[in-house]
Design a protein that fits this description.
Strand content: 25-35%
Structural class: alpha/beta
Number of domains: 2
Distance between the termini: 35 Å
CATH architecture of the largest domain: 3-Layer(aba) Sandwich
Radius of gyration: 21 Å
CATH topology of the largest domain: Rossmann fold
Strand order of the largest sheet: 8-7-11-9-10
Number of helices: 5
CATH class of the largest domain: Alpha Beta
Number of strands: 11
Length: about 210
Amino acid sequence: MVTYEDIQIQLIDTPPVTAEHVPTGSSGLWHSADALIVVADLAGDSVLEDAETCLNHLTERHIELIDGPRALPAEPGETLRVPGFVLANKIDAPGGNDNLEMLRELFGQRVRIEPLSTRDTDRMARLPELFFKLVRVIRIYAKPPGRKPDLDEPFVLSAGSDVHELARRVYRGLEDRVKSARLWGHGVADGQNVHLDHILHDKDIVELHA
């Protein structure tokens, strides 16, 4: 689990994908994941071949890594678009920068590439934020009427969710009880009444009224 501010993001580290071997059951995981990260070893002699193997493996399974929101295929057999990038590790190794430039030259138009060195504390400190932005979620803080908001445990929703989606998460099947809401946050006056189809933003505070 990786902590970003007040939430945790689950990472699943899988065995390597090679031309000779693909981990059993991996295809189902690739299709269900909120995001995918291909880790490339810039210190290795075969970094270009390894990256190509992984990306081609995804393509063969109708998966494309994108720098955008997750998009389901319109028809069976079409491409599933999943947020993701290539994490190019060991940029500090001998030849690491040269391999990074070749990686960008060959695959930069196809997929986003993020350089990394575990010895670079600044780059490592940015990782949780990169993961948070990659999965495209927002944190919403519930405020019970007449009380202070709960700022310790936000509700985590997909980016683009509205007040009605928050109501579904809070009331779990009884969301129709919610008739109105007040909001403190993005683009509104503090405590402004909003409709249930109002789109929420990260760190909004919402007070639901039944």
